[in-house]
TrEMBL record:
Similarity-based family: Belongs to the ABC transporter superfamily.
Protein name (Swiss-Prot/TrEMBL): Sn-glycerol-3-phosphate ABC transporter ATP-binding protein UgpC
NCBIfam families recorded: PRK11650.1
Organism (species): Paracoccus cavernae
Record-annotated ABC transporter domain positions: 4-234
Amino acid sequence: MAQISLEKIVKRYGTVETIHGVDLEIGNGEFVAFVGPSGCGKSTMLRMIAGLEDITGGRLKIGDALVNDVEPRGRDVAMVFQDYALYPHMTVGQNIGFGLKMRGEKPEVIREKVAEAAGILQLTDLLDRRPGQLSGGQRQRVAMGRAIVRKPKVFLFDEPLSNLDAKLRVEMRTQIKRLHRMLRTTTIYVTHDQVEAMTLADRVVVLRKGEIVQHGRPLELYERPNCRFVAEFIGSPQMNILPGEVIAGDRGPALSFAGGVIALDHITAARGTKVDIGLRPEHLLLSLPHEADFSVEVDVLEELGSDTVAICMLGGREITMRMGAGDALDLPKVIHLRFDRKKLHVFDAQSGARIEFTA
Ligand SMILES: Nc1ncnc2c1ncn2[C@@H]1O[C@H](COP(=O)(O)OP(=O)(O)O)[C@@H](O)[C@H]1O
Ligand SMILES: [Mg+2]
């Protein structure tokens, strides 16, 4: 196992800079997810750590060694990709053991290690099959088997589940989580899927345009996003955003939005500041008209069984709320909503930065 240290990591292709000086420390045995929209630099980061891509600037350490100029095979990392790149003419067992064979391991050692990996990944009965005779999920497990037999210091995953259907993706997620619990190998997992990142990782690193915008435990990001981008990226259904303004209230600062005024004790933004108010769908509660913060028109109901998502209209704007399945029965066209003041998120409308307040 090993810790990984990124210091001011930069990547340039010719004159175009795509990674702009990333600093990050990853602990020994930690499971970290890199998440962000397509093109934000996740794969580039991972490939630089793997040694598949030159590092233009900065320092990369794995364990105590500076590895900027170390060949991929000298870094003792194993990478699993979205397309598994299995050898079609080899059996599952041969595919898993191929790296060991190339390293010149003895056949009996290879057999033992392959058997161990196959056991962990529930591939024991499939060792004599060829990749063409396997399902997508089984192929992905073979690709993981190939990585784990090498007992690397670090696992690197680049969107390994993207080609699988939704059900299998969830199953494989659980498998990867179990695998990490068992092996405790330092892991970096790249995905554009925030649910995957949130459910798998000890720590989620949100990337945007070649920079880290925030990193933290999944719930830290969910409960205290440091900017509007993270707030909207993390959580499903997405956080509602409403335009508002900091105003002078009767007895102190206040927020004006959605046709109402919310009194505050304190806010770290001047009066007149234009803000974006964030409210998560599950923090909007059905209420009686006289206790409501605002009223909305129900447009579409998505009944998920366990709960119901209501997409409503407030003026011309969509507001999504989540309620218990039972609460959605016989819902009138116009419903009244309230929210706990403490659940509000406030962002500067211009910069998107989080603004702190007490209410
Ligand atoms: N070989 C390359 N030459 C030039 N630009 C590249 C190359 N590879 C990736 N990029 C650019 O770097 C940025 C990050 O790409 P990538 O790391 O693949 O994003 P992600 O994996 O987050 O979708 C993108 O803007 C992409 O166009
Ligand atoms: Mg990618």
